[in-house]
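User: Hello! My lab partner asked me to get a predicted holo structure for this protein. The small molecule is adenosine-5'-triphosphate, SMILES included with the sequence. Please write out the structure tokens.
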Amino acid sequence: MAELAQVIVDVPTLQTNRPYTYQIPERLENQVQVGMRVIVPFGNGHRKVQGFIVGLDQPSDYDGHLKKITALMDLTPVVNSEMLALSKWLADQTYSFWISCLYTMLPNALKAKSTRVVRIIDDIDENDRQLLFNNVDQLDYASVQDHPELVSRLLKLRRQGKVSFEYQVNDRARVKTAVQIEPALSFEQYENLRDGIRSNAKNQLRLVNYLQTIIGKKVLLKEARQSTGLSAAPFTQAIKKGWIKSTNVEVYRQPIGADIQDQAARNPLQLNSDQQTALDQVTDAIDQGHNQVFLLEGVTGSGKTEVYLQAMSRALKNGKTALLMVPEISLTPQIVSRVRARFGSQVAVLHSGLSAGERYDEWRRIERGEARVVVGARSAIFAPLDNLGIIIMDEEHETSYKQDDTPRYHAREVAKWRAHYHQAPLLLGSATPSLESYSRAMAGNYQLLRLPHRVNQKPLPPIDVVDMRPEVQRRGETSFSSELLTALKDRLAKHEQSILMLNRRGFSSFIMCRDCGFVLKCPNCDISLTMHLDSHTMKCHYCGHEEPIPNICPNCHSRHIRYYGTGTEKVMAELQHLMPEARIIRMDVDTTRRKGMHQKLLQQFGDGQADILLGTQMIAKGLDFPNVTLVGVLNADTGLDLPDFRASERTFDLLSQVSGRAGRAQKNGQVFIQTFNPDNYVIKLVQKHNYQQFFNTEMQIRQMASYPPYYYTVRIMGSHREERVAAKMMYDIRQELGNQLASDTIILGPTPRAIARLKDRYYYQIVIKYRHDNKLHELLTQIMQESQNKYQRGAELSIDPEPQYFL
Ligand SMILES: Nc1ncnc2c1ncn2[C@@H]1O[C@H](COP(=O)(O)OP(=O)(O)OP(=O)(O)O)[C@@H](O)[C@H]1O
Ligand SMILES: [Zn+2]
Ligand SMILES: [Zn+2]
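Assistant: Hello! Below are the structure tokens for the protein in complex with adenosine-5'-triphosphate.
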């Protein structure tokens, strides 16, 4: 029997980023298992922290004094052996702490909250007891820490040995319970009872009648009350009288929208031949447990979702489980409702909109094997599904699959790891695959599957590129060309629907002085402030700084300081003015802030309650509305000029995606793209629906500039409140990298980041581009490790493998 446990503690620092050995107290010897959470003492003093058991040992020759595990927090492991191995790999790959990776993989509810408490350990004065402790034995230190007099009294008591300061670890994993009832008597006994009830005691009679209908069953009190229309009182009385037995049972929290199903998607569709060919290859791999990566390149509206559903169905039929990744659940409620319609109560959905409790419940349903299909966004890649038969990643090119905070993992890489672990296929799908994935498919590392035609057997919608330069010269500043306006009016007359996208990527809505060019910036972050009409303020999107909208230029005192660029509110007003009779739904961060609003607005549009859906890029993805025949992009350009080598790829993806919303069913579609750069190659190739040519052109550019996918990249970022310190640290690192790397490895920088100052810290970065570099990983790990003691206090270092943005 093991007597020692290796524990990873919840102290995320470099020095503590390793397992610590603890003694297992005798009373716990039969219970401890790897993957359970424990509470352990840590450091000097009385600090208690949460930890995870990552290994069990026999005592070796170690004869020093070992601390004991204080308590076990779980009855069964919360981290299984797959997840344990994955967390270790993830920490190594992303240069982050093991403990942070474990927490990233688990629902937040399993991260215990640690609080500091003061506890009475000896007799104390009655006055103190009352005043300080409110007559209980222990108090939360946070409640007194801002009152110096109270703190000094407590410190005095501590010196006298009467109270102790301790850390307490509180598990937040709360299971929700509900009252369940069942009849305690037989049908006949209720019959007899009823004879004794007065005829005007209507509630009692109703209750007894009801109980007779549920003999032998167990029913939640809540449901019983709904069925009978009775309040809780008659039930409580009946429980007291022994007519009903009641117990507390565990129930799952029901997230909003969990019951929405797209009934049309209930049964499998008859596949067309392209879909069938693609599916056959995937099902072969599922059946044979073949760890193959497939790339499904299917144009918009080609029926990729149906292929996903049938592949998942095959995995389930084989007794396995299935995981479907989507970029962002709230933006794509349709796909979720299709999965629910097909697989019913076997489905669990994981996304950021869930409360901690709801997420914990979904996680438990998966972990217990009750949910065998999981749909979710980025972190759902860690869903504790056992026995995976397939992993599918829809819109695999989406950047939201990369987490841009530590641990900086890419869900696609984690998906590859898990698919390999389970010997299962991984299916990546997109209309516009990432260059990384497509080049791997070209090289034969991934198996390419193609759906080149739309399901409705119509061509992709024709795209008109509208040059806005003459338009603006002729008609002054406007968001709508006459072509687009005519088309919108035409759809309105025909009772067809339109989608309009306002591209707000980039720096589009700031205030600029037309006389001196002054731009109002955040005093902390050096980036332009955004105007918010609802609150009449200028806000910083990075740090939240807020100030009033200026009337006069702070620089030259001119009155010509104005809003520059366009917001959805302004476009909405303009459109309503141009088309007073149109019913318009606006969808942007402001109208969708409240929980469930995305779904609600899309539902309204789907039900035909509006003619036009006007939104930011959040409306570009995945929507499938048969009555939409017109798509307009108001400003294709923002985004093309950002200082980022992926800017063209992103613009191509976005414009292709949004164009794909038109003409998906019986009626023909049409697209207008308004631009100030009609000759830009990205826009020209979007117009031709030519992904292949875009891929070829862009690959040449990437090759010439030595960018991915020809090179791998890693970014090292250092920050400090003082610019000098941040810069010095990065120059030192540059030195250290020196000549140790491969000869074709390229080191760029250090340079200040494009946004050099953020939340009052200065950022410097080094970007390394490499092909094969045996030393690099080890060297970076070492640099990270040493940084703890080497640099000035307050300096922070982070390493980002394959960064998605270089801003
Ligand atoms: N074999 C089929 N027969 C008839 N209809 C189909 C078939 N396959 C898919 N569909 C329907 O075609 C429409 C488009 O399919 P789906 O939404 O899966 O496209 P997609 O390839 O995911 O497109 P996008 O990339 O634009 O989201 C859906 O309404 C779907 O129900
Ligand atoms: Zn000015
Ligand atoms: Zn700011």
